[in-house]
Amino acid sequence: MADEPKNPDTPEPERPEPATPEADGKPDVPADGRRAQERPEETAGAEERPRAAGELQPAERPPTAPSGSGPSGGKPSGGEARAEPSSGEPAAGRSAVEEPGPGGAEVAPAAAAPSGRQRLASGLWPPRINRNQLVVALLLFVLGLGLAIQVRQTSEGSALRGARQEDLVRILDELDDRTTRLEDEKTRLERQRSELENSSDQAEEARRQTRERERQLGVLAGTVAAQGPGIHFEIGDPRGVVEADKLLDAIQELRAAGAEAIQVNGVRVVAETFFSDASGGVRIDGRKVTAPYRFDVIGKPQDLEPALNIPGGVVQTLQKEQATVTIEPSEKIVVDALRTAKRPDYARSSSQ
Fold first, then answer.
1. DSSP 213-280
2. What is the DSSP string of 21-69?
């Protein structure tokens, strides 16, 4: 049948457009006649299936495109709605903390739990101090300061805390001996007073006691010779380290132990004797003496020797200086070095 000639003036009849889900108000229905969201077996399987460690969470499926919007303008092949990955879906291999959550929202990385050391540091710093804590701290500080001061005073007041038992016994014996000497002196003076009061010839008794007193004072002043029990005390100084102060310490220690007469290398030592350093030796009252230094001391040997050997005393100090010390008790010590008595310029007897 031959085609009829078309009249250009005749309008072309309108072609009906294919029906779309938006046009007729019906959603796109797959080939199996059911909607994708109405298939409970797929939805339940997707929700109940556990994800393995490291498996990515699937992105939310985008809404199914209309049947006419595809390139073929028809329904999806296979009768199933395919969900294409969205542009925000992470690639396979990203960390699980970077996976997007349901609805496409990204899940924030989980904060790591703090360790015990971090919790302790956060609890201690910055310090949280209130008024009560400040008051308690102040009271504790004052209490500790008082205890420290008390302990220090106790330690300083006990100079013999570190002494040995035998040293303490020796010191007690020396104190007892000094007490005995003082008691004897007291008894002697009381006897002299009684003799003066009861003597028929008080003038003669007074002269006798005066002469006795003069001899005693002469021994102490170094104007008369003396003899009696005592010790020989010698200090050797091969290195030349013994100075005047060491000799003076020895003299003071001997006097405290009851020495009555002392001479060093032929020089009488009395109350006004002075010591000074000199080249190669020591000067005693201006007279130079050299090592070894020999002491002749009259007194009770049982008191003199322990006084020199006391811990931290003369002997230990000299031995630390690498000097040699020798002590020999004797029943007869002669002190014959004399001093000239000097007449005082200003002092006069109160009895004149």
1. HHHHHHHHHTSS-EEEEEEEEEEE-TTS---HHHHHHHHHHHHHTT--EEEETTEEE-TT--EEEETT
2. HHHHT-----TTSS-STT-HHHHHHHHHSPPPTTPPPPPPPPPPPPTTT
Q: What is the pTM of this model?
A: 0.47
What phi and psi, each to the nearest 5 degrees, are found at residue 188?
-65, -45
Residue in 328, 331, 107 with CA at minimum distance from that of residue 228: 331
| Cα atoms in the 13 Å half-sphere on the side-chain side of 54 | 2
pLDDT tens by residue, 35-60: 544 454 444 444 445 554 444 454 44
- Nearest alpha-carbon partner for 333 in 252, 269, 249, 261: 261
Supply 313's token pair: 């005393």
Contact 179, 303 (CB under 8 A): no
pLDDT digits (tens, 9 = 90+) for 161-191: 667 777 778 778 878 888 888 888 888 888 8
